[in-house]
């Protein structure tokens, strides 16, 4: 089969190789998926740059965890009725060497849930990391109905879904965005108040917009960089659910200030979500897709062989939405 692989860490153009490798076989409890699409996420580019230093210890890696396609074969213990099923994938390259940047992937059956007919394969590739991370951020600490939820970076891949999950569940959603296009995207997703996070006084703007009411939950894309301002707008007993801290990688915590607010800080990564949380996220995603309740942002569609360019797009940090590799015509 055709696939992308890397045998050493480094820049995308230097280490990503497009070529032929052996087609995988579905083992016990696994399904073999003929992939149509594969998504590039920031965690994929970070792995390529050695965020997991031992990743290559057992040989080359096929990158990417998210994708979508059709089950072509099943391993022992998996019902043959799954053959022919449209699926999306998650955690394909977590704790495993071989991900979705290929014509085929073999992975645990539970990590290839059914993709409703209402969603195409491009949408299917958006769901694993972005939509499931957002789901966990919004719901890990209980229902949000009637609460005020702040989503920082609301036009980003995770933030865009977080706005929708919260708004669909009855929360008042505030989002931060730095330009008119992103503000429009947040508003269309369900945010009722938009704040420009590049404004040094954005906490004051937020509180002015709410009449002084603070927020109950914060879904945060830049925990360390935002923490000082976040604490100005979060209510006592509030929750910060964060999935990234890229600008300030090792933030220092103002412990007493946070303790006196009885703040909960929840760190989230989709790879390590509890199995029950994964199952609930998958179920809610499927229901929302069937009812047409989720919007999706796809920034780029590129052929598999252009994987290095797709990685550069993600690393550049300027794209809003998912970068998807198409595989069917390889």
TrEMBL record:
Keyword Lyase assigned: no
Domain spans labelled Enoyl reductase (ER): 12-325
SUPFAM superfamilies cross-referenced by the UniProt entry: GroES-like, NAD(P)-binding Rossmann-fold domains
Coiled-coil regions listed: none
InterPro entries per the UniProt record, alphabetical: ADH-like_C (IPR013149), ADH-like_N (IPR013154), ER (IPR020843), GroES-like_sf (IPR011032), NAD(P)-bd_dom_sf (IPR036291), Zinc-ADH_QOR/CCCR (IPR051603)
Highest taxon above the source species: Bacteria
Keywords assigned: NADP
Name listed for the protein in its UniProt record: NADPH2:quinone reductase
């Amino acid at each position: 089969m055709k696939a992308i692989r890397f045998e050493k860490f480094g820049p995308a153009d230097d280490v990503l190789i497009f070529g032929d490798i052996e087609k995988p076989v579905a083992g016990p409890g696994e399904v073999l998926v003929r992939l149509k699409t594969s998504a590039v996420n920031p965690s994929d580019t970070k792995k390529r740059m050695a965020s997991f230093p031992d990743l290559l210890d057992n040989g080359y890696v096929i990158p990417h965890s998210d994708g979508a396609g059709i089950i072509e074969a099943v391993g022992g213990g998996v019902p043959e009725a799954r053959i022919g099923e449209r699926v999306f994938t998650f955690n394909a390259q977590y704790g495993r060497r071989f991900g979705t940047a290929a014509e085929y992937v073999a992975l645990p059956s539970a990590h290839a849930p059914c993709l409703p007919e209402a969603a195409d394969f491009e949408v299917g590739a958006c769901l694993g990391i972005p939509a499931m991370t957002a789901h966990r951020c919004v719901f890990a600490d209980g229902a949000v109905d009637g609460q005020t939820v702040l989503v920082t970076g609301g036009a980003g891949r995770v933030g865009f879904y977080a706005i929708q999950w919260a708004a669909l569940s009855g929360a008042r959603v505030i989002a931060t965005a730095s330009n008119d296009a992103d503000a429009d995207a947040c508003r269309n997703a369900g945010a009722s108040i938009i704040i420009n996070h590049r404004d040094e006084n954005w906490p004051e703007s937020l509180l002015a917009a709410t009449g002084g009411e603070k927020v109950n939950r914060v879904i945060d894309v830049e925990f360390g960089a935002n923490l000082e301002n976040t604490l100005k707008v979060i209510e006592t007993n509030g929750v910060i659910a964060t999935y990234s801290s890229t600008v300030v990688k090792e933030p220092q915590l103002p412990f007493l200030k946070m303790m006196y607010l009885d703040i909960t800080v929840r760190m989230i990564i989709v790879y390590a979500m509890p199995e029950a949380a994964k199952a609930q996220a998958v179920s809610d995603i499927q229901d929302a897709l069937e009812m047409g309740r989720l919007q999706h942002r796809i920034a780029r569609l590129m052929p598999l062989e252009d994987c290095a360019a797709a990685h550069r797009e993600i690393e550049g940090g300027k794209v809003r939405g998912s970068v998807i590799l198409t595989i069917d015509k390889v």
